Structure formats: structure tokens, C-alpha cells
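FIELD: query
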Amino acid sequence: MKENYWREVGLSDEEYAQIREILQREPNQLELEMFGAMWSEHCSYKNSRNILKMLPTTGQQVLQGPGENAGVVDIGDDQAIVFKIESRNHLSAIEPFQGAATAVGGILRDVFTMGARPIAVLNALYFGSLKSKVTRARVANVVAGLATYGNNVQVPTVAGLVFFHPSYEKNCLVNVMGVGLVKQQELVKAQAIGEGNPVMLVGAFTGKDFVRGASFVSEAFGEALAGKREELAVADPTMGKILMEACLELIKTGNVIGMQDLGAGGLTGSCCDMAARGGTGIEIEVTKVPYREKEMDTDQIMLAETPERMLIVLPKGKEREAQKLFLKWGIEAAVIGRVTSDGLITVKEKGKIAARLPVSALVEDVPIQERQAREPEGLAQAQAYDLAALPEMEDYGKVLLTLLGEPTIAGKEWIYGHFDHLLDIDTMIPPGDDAAVLRVIGYNKGVALTVDGNSRYVYLDPYRGGQIAVAEAARNIVCCGGTPLAVTDCLNFGNPENPEIYWRLKEAVAGIGDACREFNTPVTGGNVSFNNETEGEAIYPTPVIGMLGIVQDLAHVTTMAFKQEDDLIILLGKNKDELGASSYLSLIHGLEAGRPPELNLELEKQVQQAAATLIQEKLAVSAHDCAEGGLAIALAECCIAGKIGAEIALVENLRPSSLLFGESQSRIIISIRKEKLDLVLQKLNNWQVPFKVLGSVGGEQLLITGSGWKINLGLREMEEKYRGAIECIINNS
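FIELD: result
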């Protein structure tokens, strides 16, 4: 073993000393490799565990919270939704196609390993400016990777978000959320229990794919990681599909005690996790592991992150039955070990012990870090920027068209057009709306799904930005006719050893936690991705919220599209003079300053409840939240989606830029039938919900008039700008 070998596997000198103290001996090379994987940030969450304690994780609806492969939420009728969000950020920066493809495969395995049939995929993608040739190529390859895997395994991609900003130029973010449906009695845990029970490895043959991957993705992106391009895992959606079907069939037999996919840390990670959850140990013989390379040493076998593999614990005596089932699917299934009662992970090679370590040392004795936190220098100055001095624009119609064509705001048809979102024809609201809605076959109910996260808000006020991410996700669920149930989150940040980054992380998580408590949406699991930076230049802090909702009656399903002539348009909530952190400020004035809009959680809940009730009582025929780009963008989106115009009067004592493009929170645009106006206004007054009747639906243009200004844009002009922007930039650059 080389001198100071522990440093090569990502361990610090202090951590190495702690390992020697725990073991009361010198660890060998393989044991150091195993510690390097399990004590990496990617596997151990050592820099975020304490912070994550600020999140609410329990609730009447939660059947399984953090600690398993995915969260599980009760949706009634003895059914449950299994869901989680994961990241493949570093890998997608190196090899965008394979990084994205393995992201889909990995999250689907997290779902079906718990017995759930995957029913949907969502994604949250953050890229640099589309003006960059590198970004354009990265976007094309990430989208192709996501589509290739998702379409081939026949799981629809139903919703997502795409955000473009220069801070992601060198470090893109690829976050993928998987969703599955399961009968509650068929849930499977990732646990190894029952001394002597066989441990079986199934799926793809093990190769030299991304050995030490867990350690590498726990570091900042640089030449060392980029140099591993040739070693990256290659996704195999065909194997992924048959592995999913075979595992789900095996679960139906009742012969699965525990099941775990092989992800971070490879075989080491899966053995440790299953033994830790079961309070047991596992002994394996590496020569029984099927591998495809001519020569593989024990370290490589234990640490390779070859995708499309599962570790399964079966009842003793059921090995042949399971192998026969997998053989029918053309899948290798090898018994490589057994469950023990000694609390140790024992690795043997030809019967000789190659490594023997306490499970508790690898999983529980991780040195948890509490980093220094400091408010970023210059943040207070940025927040205090005098936005009142900004000049008003001469032509707000031109501004609206410009914003409609900006990639972050523009329609994402070119992206989601690659995805099959109508597999099994269960998708009631496809990509492009506030949230996706999928019917639950055989029942008059559906699930609503969305992802949200505005990193500009978090950069300028992480606590408020974290709160807004949750509030907007809940608003999106409500606008589609659902009730928010639970959250999975993906926290994407730079180096946690940087006090300013760590401060933003703590503040953002505190905001997320407080908002989740208010909306009764516990966090059932998720992912933390650190070191998203290159040469000390970090991404904007980017917490992504994946939210699940329930639609109790499919008649409640509602879209953003305006429906018919003479319907009336009502704004629920208040317009305010808030331009801070807005898309308008960034894209038109080149400023990222001020504070994000204020969020009053009581008002937010009040507005959401009013919208939900009007939808359920079939009084609101459309609903759409105001988000990036403000009121004018939201109105334009309703017109474009419905292929019908609107006439709006905005007479308020606010400067036009704030009124049109400010991003004040707690606002929802609804449309109602003209004859229902008195009834709707009576209800809103009784509920004491602030509102304004904005105008009516009709015509072939969006006409907005204010005090001394006017916008008059044709539907075709808006739609061409909005729907064609991304495709035009990518294809014509």
C-alpha cells in the first residue's frame, strides 16, 4: 500500500486517525477504499446531516421518511406513492448524455426497489447561457440522455423546469425525480435480516465503471474528475427495463426480504446500507460476483458503480426459484454471500478475508462536520440596491416579447418534445403547465407532480428563497386541482467548507423547513450535491423542491389555459412594488440585486385555499400562478395555452414595470364564467381574500392597458416568440 494512501481515497489525516482508533489497528488498502466511499460526502452526508435535521419529516400521510431508497406517502385506498429526487451533476458536466441517462436509471431503481412500479419522471435542469456553444451542446446531450433512457424503459417524463444562468456554465445541474405507485402491503425495505439468508446480486455484469465514484463526486469539478471520462458508467436502458420487470415480478412472489440498488459506493455501499438498516452483517465472496472485465481486483469489484444492478436478500432455500425467474428474463443472478449476525461487513477472496469492518464504523461513526457559516460579503449591499432609481421603459409590449423569448421563461417544447409523456395514456396534464397530473388507473383520483427552484432568489436571500420554492411548488399543485402532500428535495451547492456557501445552505434549509411545516408537506427524502464549482467559482445556491399532491376527484383537474370568449379573469392576491431578484431586472437591466419578493405564508395559504375551493366547486375554469416574469408573463401564458386573447385593465398606483413584471408572491390568475361573477366575488369577500377583476377572455390579442401605457400583442406573435425561442437558438447557432 502506498504511503498516505488514505488521501487518495478522499480521507483526511484526521479521519484516518479516527479509523485507526475505531479499529484499534491499521486498516488495509481495501478497508481504506471502503471507508473512503462510505465516509465520502456523497454517501455519508457528513457536511449536511445536522442541517437536514431542520426539515420536518413526519406526518400522518408519511409511510416512510428519510433513510430508505425513497419516501413513501399514503394516497388512500391502501395505495402509496414512492418518490425521490437525485442528482447527476458532476457526471453530466463530464459526459452529458451518459450522466443524464444514468440519472434516470438510478432514480427509477430507487423507486422499484421498494416494490413500486415507476409511473413518472420529472427533471430540473440548470445550464449556462445558451449563447455559449458548450452550453448548447450540453443541453442537447443531456436532453437526449434523459429521453433515451426514459422512453426506452417506458416511463413517461411528465414535467420539469429548465433554468439558464451564467453561474452554471462550467457546472450544469441535472436533477431527476422518480415517482412510483405501490400497494401498501407490497412495500419492500432495503434491509438485510435473517442470519444465513442468501445475498444475491442480479443484473448487469460488474465492470470497472467509475470506481471510487462516490469519493470523486464529493469533490469540486476539475481535471482529476474530467480525466475519468473513459471510466464513467454507461447506461443500458434495455437492461434497465428487463431488470425492473424481473424485480417487480420477484417481489410479487413474496420471496424478497430486502432489496437495494447498487449506486454510490457500488457493492460496498449497498452491503453497508442493507446491513445497517437490518442491524446485521453481510459476508460476501468476491469471486462469485459476475464481472465482464478480464482482470478485476477486489477493490474494483467492491467499488465499481456499474449501473443496472440490484442486491437482494432472499429467504433461505428460495435461491433456485429466484434464479429461475431471472433466467426467464435473461438476467444473471448470483448468490454472492449471506446475512450474518455479527454486525460486520466481511469480504472474502477465495475464502480468505480481504476486509472485515464493523457496519457501525462505516455508516454510523462518520465524522459529522459543523462548518463555519458567514453571511456573504456584499450581500447586504446587493439587497439594499436602490431599484426606485431604475428608468421606466418606453415600450412594454417589446419588453414582454423579449421576456417571452428568454430561454428560462420561454416554452420548453423543444426539450419536452423529446420525451414520451403519454405512455399508457395516464397523463392528464402534460408538460408545460403548472404541474403534471396522472390518473390512478381504476380510481377517480390522480397525483399531481411538480419541481421548483429559483436560484436567483436563494442567492439574494436564501431563507426567503427556500420558502418561496416550497410555496410556489404548492401553488402549482393547487392550480392543477391538487392538494399538496409531501416534498423531496435536492440541495445543490458549492463547497461546504466555504463559510459563505455553508451560510446560504443553512438559511435555505431553514426556509424550506419552515415553509414545509406551514403547508403540512413533510420532506420524505432527497439528495445533497456539494462542490458544484470549478476553480473556486461556485454555482448559484440551488435547492430544488419536488412536490407530490393528490387530486381527490378527476373532475377537479384544471389547466392554465383560458377557455372561452367572455370568461372573466380574476387575480387572487396582491400586486406589489417588488422588482428585486426578478427576471425583468436581470434580463432587461442586467441587474441581480434587491431582495426577492416578500412571502407572507398566511396570505399564501389563504390564496391557495381560495383557488382550491373555487376549482373544487367548479367555479374556476382555469388557474395559473404568477412566477418568473410576473403578471404579464402569466397572462400571456394563459392566452398562448388557450389559443385565445384577453383584454386586461391594470389601474393601480404602482410603476408599470413592477405591476407587469414584478414577481410578488401569493398570486393566482383564475378565469370564471361571466354569470358566476357575483357568486365568486361574494365568496372571496367572505373569505377576506384580496382580489382584482382584471378583465375578460376573447379576441386574438393580449391587450393590457394602464395609466398612460398599453400593451397590444397578437397571439401568433407571442406564441412564435414563446414556443420557438429555444429551438431557434439551438438550431441556428
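FIELD: remark
The first strand starts at residue 62 and ends at 64.
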